[in-house]
Design brief:
It contains three helices and no strands. It is mostly helical. It is rod-shaped, with a radius of gyration of 21 Å.
Length: 94
């Protein structure tokens, strides 16, 4: 196995782990947030506007983490700087 193949495998595995963990953690966080918000709404229906607004801000912040992990995994697959470096040196070396 040459270095180009090793970098490609490392990039793909890292991208897969990034998107896997990056989607699992926000999904768990969003589920816990919604469950807690519904419990709070059931206990205090008068505070529904405040609870709902806070829930949506929190969900947006949690969702941004998942989007960030998606962007990082896409960069690892399609715009990996190590990949470009190896390709440039492989072409120059021949």
């Amino acid at each position: 196995m040459d270095s180009t193949t090793a970098i490609a495998i490392a990039s793909i595995v890292t991208a897969g782990m990034t998107i896997g963990i990056g989607c699992l953690a926000p999904a768990l966080g969003e589920g816990k947030s919604v469950a807690t918000a519904l419990t709070s709404l059931a206990q205090q229906p008068d505070a529904s506007a405040t609870i709902t607004r806070t829930l949506f801000v929190g969900l947006a912040m949690i969702e941004s983490l998942a989007i960030y992990c998606f962007v990082v995994s896409m960069i690892l697959i399609f715009a990996n700087p190590f990949w470009k470096y190896i390709i440039a040196h492989a072409v120059a070396g021949k």
